[in-house]
């Protein structure tokens, strides 16, 4: 139980009390913001500090053991993804895992340790959204210090109630298992304190922790001591034949290639930022950051697409709904063909009926229910107007054999059992 604290009246409109105070020092609990040598803090027990951190941190770990989205890496791509996703879907539990003590990746500086950050248009719109000022140079803009972008986006991301970040924590492995369709799916991350992860060669086995999530965004940067982590793991797990390897610098090719190529590289795993250059064999862009912002936002858009189309139970995808976004053009073309097939066959049946041909087999497997029940029996026949109606209906029936002596009468020889 925290001891009660009495706050000595402070002057209005300022937190700084310059006048000498008459602090009540009976129980040592008085606080005073006085910069003339009498500044007094509330008394505290050391264990209170420990408990305040432990309770919150481990509650977070407990709650986030099943997350909605895990973002691996808090560089410019990972943070841009977190911002867009967290803002668009405040209901999603988004957990960022960052191996370094300081989040931000390489975005604390521009190029060659210089501070200004160059962002090509139209990615300056993201800076507008974040309220990060810049100088306009025509095709690109310049933020006076890269840290202004990174500290701003970090503060906005961390202020979102649905986002938590665990830094000094490394993703050591991926959870890869069969999904409800029998396909290999990335279903979570395997984590450890980074200092532990860096010492597996010096200590005996130090087992990790896990976080499951239906969607993982990996944005671990290009190859380095930790970088391109998931791309490399895909290779060692046999899910990718080999790394494409980052190509030489070409700003004009690389930035659109990374943004447009940001995608779900294997079920459950969306890859963003420079990690994708290692996966795809794309060019690097060097010190221009619009591509990272665009790629992060595209990763968020891809994640949202999955959430719109998937049925998720306890952090696992158990099925998919139909959604216009979840189909490619070739999927739609295939569906159209499959849907049209029975009609094409039925057309043959109609033509056959009107030419008085004897019989057709297994023609139309659809819409059996629309045939009157008493006419679904073998041997039943109809003539006149009804026959014409039935001829139309028969386009959709699962009829094994139809006798058609003339265009005005239809006799059903036999009917499939499921009618
Ligand atoms: O610490 C890494 C960094 O903050 C973190 N990370 C890497 N492996 C991890 C792991 N677990 C947890 N196993 C991990 N975190 O991922 C972050 C990557 O940030 P980054 O700035 O290196 O990558 P980015 O893709 O966001 O931005 C790349 C910026 C570059 S590199 C480049 C060039 O070389 O040409 N140009 C630009 C703009």
UniProtKB/TrEMBL annotation:
<feature type="binding site">
    <location>
        <position position="106"/>
    </location>
    <ligand>
        <name>substrate</name>
    </ligand>
</feature>
<comment type="subunit">
    <text>Homooctamer.</text>
</comment>
<feature type="binding site">
    <location>
        <position position="207"/>
    </location>
    <ligand>
        <name>substrate</name>
    </ligand>
</feature>
<keyword id="KW-0408">Iron</keyword>
<feature type="binding site">
    <location>
        <position position="77"/>
    </location>
    <ligand>
        <name>substrate</name>
    </ligand>
</feature>
<feature type="binding site">
    <location>
        <begin position="98"/>
        <end position="99"/>
    </location>
    <ligand>
        <name>substrate</name>
    </ligand>
</feature>
<feature type="binding site">
    <location>
        <position position="171"/>
    </location>
    <ligand>
        <name>substrate</name>
    </ligand>
</feature>
<dbReference type="GO" id="GO:0009228">
    <property type="term" value="P:thiamine biosynthetic process"/>
</dbReference>
<feature type="binding site">
    <location>
        <position position="222"/>
    </location>
    <ligand>
        <name>substrate</name>
    </ligand>
</feature>
<keyword id="KW-0539">Nucleus</keyword>
<dbReference type="GO" id="GO:0005634">
    <property type="term" value="C:nucleus"/>
</dbReference>
<keyword id="KW-0808">Transferase</keyword>
<dbReference type="GO" id="GO:0005829">
    <property type="term" value="C:cytosol"/>
</dbReference>
<keyword id="KW-0784">Thiamine biosynthesis</keyword>
<dbReference type="InterPro" id="IPR027495">
    <property type="entry name" value="Sti35"/>
</dbReference>
<dbReference type="GO" id="GO:0052837">
    <property type="term" value="P:thiazole biosynthetic process"/>
</dbReference>
<dbReference type="GO" id="GO:0160205">
    <property type="term" value="F:cysteine-dependent adenosine diphosphate thiazole synthase activity"/>
</dbReference>
<comment type="similarity">
    <text>Belongs to the THI4 family.</text>
</comment>
<feature type="binding site">
    <location>
        <begin position="284"/>
        <end position="286"/>
    </location>
    <ligand>
        <name>substrate</name>
    </ligand>
</feature>
<dbReference type="GO" id="GO:0005506">
    <property type="term" value="F:iron ion binding"/>
</dbReference>
<dbReference type="Pfam" id="PF01946">
    <property type="entry name" value="Thi4"/>
</dbReference>
<feature type="binding site">
    <location>
        <position position="274"/>
    </location>
    <ligand>
        <name>substrate</name>
    </ligand>
</feature>
<protein>
    <recommendedName>
        <fullName>Thiamine thiazole synthase</fullName>
        <ecNumber>2.4.2.60</ecNumber>
    </recommendedName>
</protein>
<dbReference type="InterPro" id="IPR036188">
    <property type="entry name" value="FAD/NAD-bd_sf"/>
</dbReference>
<keyword id="KW-0520">NAD</keyword>
<keyword id="KW-0963">Cytoplasm</keyword>
<keyword id="KW-0479">Metal-binding</keyword>
<feature type="modified residue" description="2,3-didehydroalanine (Cys)">
    <location>
        <position position="205"/>
    </location>
</feature>
<comment type="function">
    <text>Involved in biosynthesis of the thiamine precursor thiazole. Catalyzes the conversion of NAD and glycine to adenosine diphosphate 5-(2-hydroxyethyl)-4-methylthiazole-2-carboxylic acid (ADT), an adenylated thiazole intermediate. The reaction includes an iron-dependent sulfide transfer from a conserved cysteine residue of the protein to a thiazole intermediate. The enzyme can only undergo a single turnover, which suggests it is a suicide enzyme. May have additional roles in adaptation to various stress conditions and in DNA damage tolerance.</text>
</comment>
<dbReference type="InterPro" id="IPR002922">
    <property type="entry name" value="Thi4_fam"/>
</dbReference>
